[in-house]
Amino acid sequence: MKKITIVATLLMAMAITACKSGSTESAPTQIAATVQMFNGDGSSFVHWAPNTTLVAWDETFNPVEVTVASVAEDSASCMLQLADTATPSGVSRFVYPANAYVGNGMVNIPTVQQRSALTEDLLYYAEPREGKVDFLPLCGLIQLHVTTPEQLASITLSTTDSLLYFSGNFTVREYPIPVIDAVEGAEHQVTLQGIDQIDFSQGADVFIQVAPGYCESFQVVFQNKDGKKCTKTLKEDKSILIERGKISSVALGDASHPLVFE
């Protein structure tokens, strides 16, 4: 990747630190970071191990790899190792995971997701403020509680609302309360795969990462290992609110309302 400088003031701060320590060599370009817990309560923790990779970019949109240099003993913060060259151009931005950045200032929520979403899969975004970066979740999570004796191969969520997008490409604005806007490449659906080993017979949860939004049209399509499908659609008088950094729960399939595959 072509390297860029992230923030000029950061480099200056590190240079001052190096002078105080008596070093004649340039100091590593590092910045402190926190990661907000995915529950909306404002508390922080770090789920990234050392050497985890992220991506940063400036107004030129050229990406630069960023790595986690160290994690605090209390897991409340970490230090990021930044690239060190050239001249910055405007506001810098960070995104995790590294493959979420698709260029031209766009981030991507996977349209096809593998396995139930884990903490380390979730999309986080940050911009430097006062010499540090505070990473915030960009998406919401749908917690789907499913009860069925079927062995499921995939679950697809979709909406018919032309203004509502679940996945694909988005741009980010309004940090530190980030808002994502759908752009070319955004999709009205998201599919979860890699769930064939989950036993849903007594009920089990899967988590799917989606863009925030207010859903008045919402459809779930289950497909079993034999290719048969079961489709469930939100009733007209119902709605689902998917909030950034929060979990929205949906339960489907029980003794009174079994999932029927055809």
Short summary of the structure?
Helices cover 5% and strands 41% of the residues.
- Principal-axis shape equals elongated
Looking across the biggest beta sheet, what order are the strands in?
A: 1-4-3-2-5-9-11
Termini, distance in Å? 49 Å
What is the makeup of the main sheet?
Answer: 7 strands, mixed, barrel
In what range is the share of β-strand residues?
35-45%
The secondary-structure class comes to: mainly beta
Task: Compute the average pLDDT.
Answer: 85
User: Whole-number radius of gyration?
Assistant: 21 Å
Query: Helical proportion?
Result: under 10%
Question: What ranges have pLDDT less than 50 throughout 5 or more consecutive residues?
Answer: 1-28
Write the layout of secondary structure elements.
Blueprint: H1 8-21, E1 30-35, E2 53-57, E3 63-71, E4 78-81, E5 93-96, E6 101-103, E7 106-109, E8 112-114, E9 124-126, E10 128-129, E11 132-137, E12 140-146, E13 152-158, E14 168-173, E15 179-182, E16 189-193, E17 204-210, E18 213-215, E19 219-224, E20 229-233, E21 240-242, E22 247-252
Parallel strand pairs: 1-11, 8-16, 12-22
Antiparallel strand pairs: 1-4, 2-3, 2-5, 3-4, 5-9, 6-7, 7-14, 9-11, 10-11, 12-17, 13-16, 13-19, 14-15, 18-21, 19-20
Which features would summarize this protein structure in a list?
262 residues; seven-stranded mixed beta barrel; five-stranded mixed β-sheet; disordered N terminus
Plain-language structure description:
The chain has 262 residues and is mainly beta. The protein is built from 1 helix and 22 strands. The chain has one helix spanning 8-21; strands at 30-35, 53-57, 63-71, 78-81, 93-96, 101-103, 106-109, 112-114, 124-126, 128-129, 132-137, 140-146, 152-158, 168-173, 179-182, 189-193, 204-210, 213-215, 219-224, 229-233, 240-242, 247-252. The chain has a 7-stranded mixed beta barrel with strand order 1-4-3-2-5-9-11. Strands 8-16-13-19-20 form a 5-stranded mixed β-sheet, with no helix packed on it. A hairpin with a 2-residue loop joins β6 (101-103) and β7 (106-109). The termini are far apart.
